[in-house]
Specification:
Pfam families: tRNA-synt_2d (PF01409). Tetramer of two alpha and two beta subunits. InterPro entries: aa-tRNA-synth_II, aa-tRNA-synth_II/BPL/LPL, Phe-tRNA-synth_IIc_asu, Phe_tRNA_ligase_alpha_bac/arc, Phenylalanyl-tRNA_Synthase. Keywords: Aminoacyl-tRNA synthetase, ATP-binding, Cytoplasm, Ligase, Magnesium, Metal-binding, Nucleotide-binding, Protein biosynthesis. By secondary structure, the chain is of the alpha+beta class. It has three domains: about 110 residues, Arc Repressor Mutant, subunit A (Orthogonal Bundle); about 55 residues, no CATH class; about 250 residues, Bira Bifunctional Protein, Domain 2 (BirA Bifunctional Protein, domain 2, 2-Layer Sandwich), CATH 3.30.930. The chain contains 19 helices and 18 strands. The strands form five sheets. Strands 8, 12, 13, 14, 15, 16, 17 and 18 form an eight-stranded mixed beta sheet that branches. Strands 1-5-2 form a three-stranded antiparallel beta sheet. A hairpin with a 2-residue loop joins β3 and β4. α1 packs across α3. The longest helix is centred in the middle third of the chain and has 15 residues. The two termini are about 50 Å apart. Bound molecules: phenylalanine. The site of phenylalanine has 11 residues, from β17 and β18.
Length: about 475
Amino acid sequence: MMLSPMEITLIKSLEEGKDYDLEQAAKISGLNKDAVLKASYLLQEKGLAEVKVVKDISYRLTDEGEKYLSEGLPEERLYSLIKQGVDSIDQAKKEMKDFGIAIGWLRKKGIAKIEGKKIVLLKDADFREKELLKKIDDGETPEGVDELIRRKLVSVDEKKEIFVRILKKPSAEIKDVIKDLTPDILISGSWKGKEFLKYDVRIPSKTIFTAKYHPYEKIVAECRKIFLEMGFTEIKGSFVQSSFWNFDALFQPQDHPARDMQDTFYLDAYEDLDDDFVEKVKRTHIDGWKTGSTGWGGDWSLDTARKLVLRTHTTAITIHYLAMNPEPPVKAFCIDRVYRRESIDATHLPEFDQLEGVLLDKDVGFRHLLGLLREFFLKMGFEDVRFRPGYFPYTEPSVEPEVYVDGLGWVELGGAGVFRKEVTEPLGIKGKVLAWGLGMGRLAMLRLGMKDLRKLYQPDLGWLREIPVSRLRW
Ligand SMILES: N[C@@H](Cc1ccccc1)C(=O)O
């Protein structure tokens, strides 16, 4: 029989027939607890030791449990009030706290019901709960506490303890086994004729969590790589934008609902706009300027355009970039944070990221846009892509790209379109602009098979540790 040095150490240092917990065994043998555990299992396989896993369950009162132990359960208090003749809901409410909880339980247990404003007793009751709470408080572990656990009056501590017992100590042990192959052993040749320690991959060991990139960061990087490979340049811009670049330059009328305080975070500050763009954009809004459009009509206020906002979309960045780089060809993208007044739920956050892009060239059109986006989605691993008609004030035609995901069906991923002449001409942009803005978080959720967007931004180690690295291709 071949024993490893670890097993030999353990078997030598423990007495036969006696149970040791891991801590004791570690102390006596000088091995660490993991090594003791490993050696114990190895010895058990050879019939030399026995490993016992003992679960120790103990109960504890929660704060609420303690409160009820001293005050009595709400339903018990209400029950005795009723017994004393209090049968009106209003009066019972006055005489006790937790009436709602109390009547809930009396009804659930079939002890009382409500008729109009009265409480009607249906049967006599005895309440075992308090007795159980008392026992638990005295350190006992009584039966029948499931209901109390569900009511969160009692919590359960489960401790796992592992014991090892040496069954016999073989006398004709114990060959000298080589554990580590060192240069010395190799040079001297002392390994010859000896046995090597074998690994046993079935032995339980501690889980080790290595550092890894956040899966969201990886997917962002994947998108970035795709656009870089397609010849796009990554651009950045300020989180704070004038309404002019966030809305007006995109031919979004000044009374558009998206500009409402309800939807947009405004800063209490204004930016000076001395651009010569301003006049042309203003005219385009009012009467179409030289674009051939009729514009939106009405007035256009410079103050409204000067007001600063937290950018509501990254289209503010791409349009400004095009205004500064109006000569074709231009291919640019931007993956960055945007802000909207949203109530937080599983699919909405007030901050999220968009994957924005523009392609400016002379002879491009709608079909190139669809082809380009389809190509991107295919590269991201979505095989079925379709485009539904959409509406944005700055594009014509406009579409909403959708991808097909098993179990979810068609999922919308943002917007896209060809910039209108009311957008390009006042800014001097020469050519056609294909533009899109996709929900980066949604894209990541779909790829990661998640249902709750919030998880992407929470430091939830449980989830992060479980995400298989294989789902990410970066
Ligand atoms: N800005 C749009 C998306 C979009 C970008 C570019 C063109 C068309 C649509 C949004 O935030 O939803």
